[in-house]
Amino acid sequence: MANFVADTQVYGHPVKGRGAWSMEYGSLKKFRLFTLLPAPCTLLITLLLAPCSLLFAQTPKAQELYAQSIKLFGERKADEAIPFMEQAIKQDPNFTDAYLKLGQLYEFTKRYDPALAVYRNAIKLQPDSPASGAAYQSLSNTLLRLGRYSEALPYLEKYQTMFAPQSAQAKRIARQIETARFAQEAIQHPQAVDPKPLSSVLQTTPSQYFPVLTADEQTLVFTALKPEGDEDLMTATFNGEIWSPPTSLASSINTPENEGTASLSADGRTIVFTACQGRKGFGSCDLYMSHKTGDDWSSPENLGTPINTRYYESQPALSADGRQLYFVSDRPGGKGRRDIWRSERNATGDWNEPVNLGEPVNTPFNEASPFIHPNGQSLFFASEGHIGMGGYDLFVADNSASGWSAPTNLGYPINTSEDQASLFVSANGKRAYYSYEEQKDGVSQKSRLYTFDLPESLRERIKPVTYLKGVVTDAKTKKPLNASLELIDLKTNQVVSRLQTDSQTGQYTAVLPSGGEYALYVSQPGYLFKSLSFDLTQKTKGDGMSLTVPLEPAVAGTSANETLNNLFFESGRYDLAEKSKTELDRLSAFLQANPTLKVEILGHTDDKGDAATNLALSQKRAQAVVTYLAKAGIEASRIRAVGYGKTRPLVPNTTDENRQLNRRIEWKLL
């Protein structure tokens, strides 16, 4: 194979398990057989090909068989090498190094039980001698990798006594002991998850991995390994019941080389992905971006500096609004080898200098595959530096004003003794998507896309978001518009997100964070802006909404009335609440941008109370708006206030909800 997506992995070894990664492309191309090496056996090739450092054979025949086995392995004939090493041990039962090499050959060919047996035999020869250290190391590493933690602990504890307490080796073993104990505890308290294959219709290639979805979970993009070894980005759609057969994302993106580890914006119209060869880039792997208009993706652009460098950049994670980019890099200035970095997009559309997330997220070891939830706070990522169940585990950390929280291990069986790769969590925080390597007899077979319901313990800490999707059209012609949308926090008057509709279809998807009050403004030059209001302070579920937004042409005397949905008054009063400032400033800016237009501000009430009192109240509320606009610099001759009381209801005054709709301030062009 060419390699699992453009070097989405860790230097020097493949990452197995839930989510298929692969080793560095160049190394794989040199000697593909080496990719089968178990991750913890970092010195296996050296041990097999270099002169032995343990006990030598006591008989020439044993040494001859040993040398022949090493030669066969060097020729990529591991299975043929095993009988010679077995014979070497029969010739010399005290040949410690032959036991060690045989165990490593068994591991190489995925025969783990025989490997464990010969490691134990090597230890029995000299259980207290430092000469058995390599056997202790190989045995405990293999047991940890197989998830046999209770068996590994006694060997690790014995092995640790062979080193000075503060030595680097003793500290490494202490970390493995901590891993084994953590894993034992996690297995005793498993998470309530039941992973299931996403859909067999998606399995059109030998393997699929790294799934990402839109906010509505109806568009899926993933990396597919094709029979010829090429990796492409594929897409499929969900109609509420079944997934469509996957197709190539775009001929402008996929090439005969590898593309993968993509990140998708909430609306599915911006993608960032990794490519490590076949394109002119800055370093070993670079990040590229493409935008979708209608059904067509643009030609990918290298993100350039300061995102890409001569070092490794991969595994992007784009925030829901496209304004932040998380990614993995081994550039200088990090905490370890590969760290998670973040860059923000400025007002001009350029990416700022990336910042290392630092502690407690990054460690002196490798971090990988970040995913920032649409809530903008929950960061999921893989790490081999935080204590887990061995190798790479999945973690979540939360961002707040005080910084990142200490990462939380997602627990068993989301994490296992195998390496876990990326995780995608839905906007509503209910589901997770990932890739899982189906295995047979302990050997990885095919990587498939899986999904599971997030357990309650994790769902409680993930702040869900709501999404609003739909189409912006011309109210008269019904044609789609290329409109701008701005989501503003009414409490702070700060822009939460900005986005643009598809210029061909008028489609949009906006993410609405829970726990606040928001104004959403939809605007296009030549049209009246549309004001929408969302009170999500009590909303705990991230259920999506669909809304077609018709914009009225800004033509004097012909436009329909528009409701100012983000004006707020105390009951029975006409004083504008502070959070009304967002709406009033928006209206003021519109009038300043269109100096020839004149408007009428219309006040309305429901049917409760005295008619004359309601009429007066509606007039005073409309006048309060006019007064604000005048203070903002709008000429008095261009604005007037009219109160209509209860005489013009939008809907019948039959329910509290309807009465709330009827209590409103509108504006129209004169």
Automatic annotation (TrEMBL):
GO cellular component: cell outer membrane
PROSITE patterns tied to this protein: OMPA_2, TPR, TPR_REGION
Boundaries of every OmpA-like domain copy: 556-670
Compartment(s) of residence: Cell outer membrane
InterPro entries: 6-blade_b-propeller_TolB-like (IPR011042), Bact_OuterMem_StrucFunc (IPR050330), CarboxyPept-like_regulatory (IPR008969), OMP_bac (IPR006664), OmpA-like (IPR006665), OmpA-like_sf (IPR036737), TPR-like_helical_dom_sf (IPR011990), TPR_rpt (IPR019734)
One Pfam family from the record: PD40
TM regions (residue ranges): 33-56
UniProt key word Transmembrane helix: yes
Annotated keywords: Cell outer membrane, Membrane, TPR repeat, Transmembrane, Transmembrane helix
TPR repeat extents: 96-129
Protein name (record): OmpA family protein
